[in-house]
What does this fold into?
Amino acid sequence: MAGCYNTSLFLLSRRRIRRSRADRRERFYIFLLACLNEEKVLSESLARITSLPARNFMALVIDDGSDDCTAEIARTSDPALVRLHRRTPPNARRGKGAALNDGVRHLRESGLLAGHAPEDVVLCVVDADGRLDPHVVQSVDPYFDDPRTGAVQICVRMYNRNLGLLARMQDMEFVVYGDVFQSARRFIGSVGMGGNGQFMRLAALDTLDGDGPWSDSLTEDLDLGVRLIAKGWTNQHCTTAAVSQQAVLSLRRLVRQRSRWFQGHLQSASLVPLILRDVPTRAALDLLYHLSSPVLILLTSLLPLSFLVALGATVTASVQVGHPLFSPMWLLGPYLLSFTAAYGYGFVYAKRERALGLVRSVLLAHVFVFYGYIWFAAGWWGFWRMLTGQRGWLKTART
It folds into this structure.
């Protein structure tokens, strides 16, 4: 079933969307950076934002109770383009969603939005280590010409992808997710939002229920995307611009990060009634399948173990009877089942990383299949955290 689903999305992702031209409107772009002890990476990210060749934009650094030089870095940036909003205990350090909600409240109360209609204000969430492409505004802006567009997600890359195989696998992971799954979901109506490089129309956020656009879930971005769709807005995926972030170079830290994502996915099961009630059927089916992925991952984690047990039993029996009970050709089936997707993923990645070439990309995609097993460890870790009531943020440290 999963193989047919992935193949369908791959074929769908190869289609191209034609957008009709519309009159250009002047929009106000605000980049939101929720920061907790980000002195190692914030300066470069702000430098990228302030150098954008756009006319009407600003950045708001939301210092979420940092005890390093995060605030000082924001203060010393271009004062005409960068503003600082500081959060202090006991309200600080309550998660990314709470920080972003407080940032939006600050924008409203400070008067920074005065003179701008909500439909012409676009908020963009950028992680503190996010490095935006220079042409990002020019690439994203045409999507908002359609008044039904509530949000646009851009591609995500790893700027340190050359620093080892683990970093390369994370880059391939995000390229495959964006160029295959997200691109296909444009035609289904189920494009999801990511925690980095998500652009949202303020008028769309204003239609969401609750104290603020973002929830307190560990995957607040996933929740936001689903709730926008449920309100009748269209989420888009932009393939021509990207935000680059820092890949995690430690396997333990990577599994720790993904366990937080997994736990957030489990929390998002509460969105199922909303999807069934308010989301069109085709998009609802895809979203429900997407939300079921944690359960599928936990079940799938048992398959490699059962295969090894069966293979070990066959080898043992072969030794006892004195001749092999299986043919090497029997391995062809498991290979095709496990690695057929690698050829498609390698093809997609080679188009982004032309210097690698198709052959090397396909070989890396074979490694990528094994890399996917980290979700098994992260899944069980996240499941255990949920069972034991642990809701800590597990913030990934920068290097």
User: Anything to note?
Assistant: The two ends are 40 Å apart (CA to CA).
